[in-house]
Amino acid sequence: MPKIQWERLPREKWSHLRDRAKERQISEEDLFELAEWKMQDPDVPDGDSYKDFGTFKLSRTGKFPNTFLLAGQAARGKRL
């Protein structure tokens, strides 16, 4: 199974994720929860998927994280 590639994110992806985290007021506590999950280096399915953290969702397309969604926003792909 593939992994999410966090290292060497394209500058545009990194900028987008930073902007969405700020815009959608993802808390520092939530980002720590994401970091803990990320450290587990979880397998992810091919194609689109998302991880629901309760207060926000991390969406991904391909090998890179794609965006942060609010809890009520619909996400595409398989739930992790």
Describe the structure.
The protein has 80 residues and is an alpha+beta fold. The chain starts with 10 loop residues before the first helix and ends with a strand. It has helices at 11-23, 28-39; strands spanning 49-52, 56-61, 64-70, 78-79. A 4-stranded mixed sheet has the order 3-2-1-4. The protein has 2 helices and 4 strands. The radius of gyration is 12 Å and the shape is globular.
Summed up, the helix count is: 2
Biggest sheet features: 4 strands, mixed
Distance between the termini: 13 Å
Q: What is the N-to-C order of secondary-structure elements (H for helix, E for strand)?
A: HHEEEE
Please, how many domains?
1
* Average pLDDT metric: 94
- Helical residue percent? 25-40%
Major β-sheet strand ordering:
3-2-1-4
Quaternary organization: single chain
Name the features.
80 residues; alpha+beta; four-stranded mixed β-sheet; 4 strands
In short:
By secondary structure, the chain is of the alpha+beta class. It has one domain.
SSE topology:
Layout: H1 11-23, H2 28-39, E1 49-52, E2 56-61, E3 64-70, E4 78-79
Parallel strand pairs: 1-4
Antiparallel strand pairs: 1-2, 2-3
